[in-house]
Amino acid sequence: MAAELSSDNPDVSSCPDDRHRPVDHYENFPVASWLCPPRLRAPVAAIYWFARTADDIADEGSATAGDRLADLLTYRNDLHACLQDNTGSGRWPHVFGPLGRAATTFDLPAQPLYDLLDAFRQDVEKTRDRAGYADRAELLEYCRRSANPVGRLLLHLYGVTSPVALAESDAICSALQLINFWQDAGLDLRRGRYYLPAEDCRRHGLDPADPASWPAHPNAPALLRDLSDWARALMLAGAPLVHRVPGRAGWELRFVVQGGLRILHRIERLQWRTLQHRPAVGLIDAPAMLWRAARM
Question: What's the CA gap between 64 and 4, in Å, rounded?
Answer without folding.
Answer: 25
